[in-house]
C-alpha cells in the first residue's frame, strides 16, 4: 500500500488491539525451538517454522514480531526468509514489527531506515525496533521516514536484561534518567496524535518498579508500549499492573515461547495464541 493510502501505524495498531486483543506473537526461530519442532537448523527449517507461525496466527492477533537476528545468522538465504515472512504477514492482514533494534548515526541510520521503513523495500514491515543509545536525535532519519510512510518505531527504553540498568537508569546532568528522557522525546514526536502516536517504546514486562524508579511517564508518551516477557518469561497480570499502571491500555504484550512451544501443530499454535490473547485482554483491558 503506498504511503498516501496508509493510515499512521499508531492508528492501525490501536484498531488491531481493540479488535483482536493487545497481543503480539514473537517469531523467534532459534536452534532449540527448531529442534523441538522436528526441523533442521537450516534455511528449510527456518522457512517452515516462520510461515507456519504466520499461517496459524495471522488474522488472529494484533501483530507478529520476527526477530531479525535469527534470520541473519543463516546469511543471505535467511534474510530472504525474513522478507518472505514479512510478506506473508502482510498478505494475512497482520501488522508486522521487525525486531532488528537498529541504531546508528547520520547516513548509516538513514540507510537502515531505507532498508526497514521505505515503501517497496522487502524488509519493510509496519514498524521497526530501534536503539536510541547513540542519542535520541540519531533516530531522526528513521522517525522522518516512518512518518512519511505511515510506519512506526519502537524505541528501546526500559529493557529486562540486567545490563540495561547501567545505561537506562543513569542520570543526566540535570538529574533526569536516560529512560525518562527517551520517553519524553518520544512523547514530543507523538504530540496531538489520536488514538495513539506511531513512536512507541519497548518496556520489559518483568522490570518491576523500574518505571517509577526512573521517573518515566509512560502515559504521557501517547504511543504504544511493546512489552516483551509476557507468559513463559514470567510476567502475568500482577506484573503488568506493577510495571504499566495507568498506561496499561497502551500496552502491546509480546509472547513468543508461550505460544511457539505449542507447535508445530497449527491448531495447537492457534489455541495457544487464543489463550494468550485472552490473558492479555484480562490483564490490560479488564
TrEMBL record:
Top-level division of the source organism's lineage: Bacteria
Domain Orotidine 5'-phosphate decarboxylase residues, every copy: 22-272
SMART domains xref list: OMPdecase
Alphabetically ordered keywords of this record: Decarboxylase, Lyase, Pyrimidine biosynthesis
GO-annotated molecular function: orotidine-5'-phosphate decarboxylase activity
EC number from the UniProt entry: 4.1.1.23
GO BP, sorted A to Z: 'de novo' pyrimidine nucleobase biosynthetic process; 'de novo' UMP biosynthetic process
Enzyme class, broadest EC rank: lyase
Catalytic reaction(s) noted: orotidine 5'-phosphate + H(+) = UMP + CO2
Pathway linked to the protein: Pyrimidine metabolism; UMP biosynthesis via de novo pathway; UMP from orotate: step 2/2
Any Pfam family: OMPdecase
Keyword Lyase: yes
Gene3D superfamilies: Aldolase class I
Catalytic residues identified in the record: 101 (proton donor)
Family: Belongs to the OMP decarboxylase family. Type 2 subfamily.
Protein name in UniProt: Orotidine 5'-phosphate decarboxylase
Source organism of this protein record: Xylanimonas cellulosilytica (strain DSM 15894 / JCM 12276 / CECT 5975 / KCTC 9989 / LMG 20990 / NBRC 107835 / XIL07)
Amino acid at each position: 500500500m503506498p504511503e498516501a493510502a496508509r493510515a499512521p501505524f499508531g492508528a492501525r495498531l490501536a484498531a488491531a488491539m481493540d479488535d483482536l486483543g493487545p497481543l503480539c506473537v514473537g517469531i523467534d526461530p532459534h536452534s532449540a525451538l527448531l529442534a523441538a519442532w522436528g526441523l533442521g537448523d537450516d534455511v528449510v527449517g527456518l522457512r517452515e517454522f516462520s510461515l507456519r507461525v504466520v499461517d496459524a496466527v495471522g488474522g488472529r492477533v494484533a501483530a507478529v514480531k520476527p526477530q531479525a537476528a535469527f534470520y541473519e545468522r543463516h546469511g543471505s538465504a535467511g534474510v530472504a526468509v525474513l522478507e518472505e515472512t514479512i510478506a506473508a504477514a502482510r498478505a494475512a492482514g497482520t501488522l508486522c514489527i521487525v525486531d532488528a533494534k537498529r541504531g546508528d548515526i547520520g547516513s548509516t541510520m538513514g540507510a537502515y531506515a531505507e532498508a526497514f521503513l521505505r515503501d517497496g523495500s522487502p524488509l519493510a514491515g509496519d514498524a521497526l525496533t530501534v536503539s536510541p543509545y547513540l542519542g535520541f536525535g540519531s533516530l531522526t532519519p528513521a522517525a522522518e521516514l516512518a512518518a512519511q510512510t505511515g510506519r512506526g518505531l519502537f524505541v528501546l527504553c526500559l529493557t529486562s536484561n540486567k545490563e540495561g540498568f547501567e545505561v537506562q537508569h543513569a542520570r543526566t546532568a540535570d538529574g533526569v534518567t536516560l529512560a525518562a528522557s527517551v520517553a519524553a522525546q518520544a512523547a514530543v514526536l507523538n504530540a496531538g496524535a489520536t488514538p495513539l502516536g506511531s513512536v512507541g517504546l519497548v518496556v520489559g514486562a518483568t522490570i518491576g518498579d523500574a518505571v517509577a524508579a526512573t521517573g518515566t511517564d509512560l502515559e504521557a508518551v501517547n504511543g504504544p508500549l511493546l512489552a516483551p516477557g509476557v507468559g513463559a518469561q514470567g510476567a502475568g497480570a500482577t506484573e503488568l499492573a506493577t510495571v504499566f499502571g495507568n498506561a496499561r491500555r497502551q500496552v502491546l504484550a509480546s509472547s513468543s515461547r508461550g505460544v511457539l512451544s505449542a507447535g508445530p501443530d497449527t491448531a495447537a499454535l492457534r489455541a495457544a495464541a487464543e489463550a494468550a490473547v485472552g490473558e492479555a485482554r484480562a490483564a490490560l483491558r479488564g
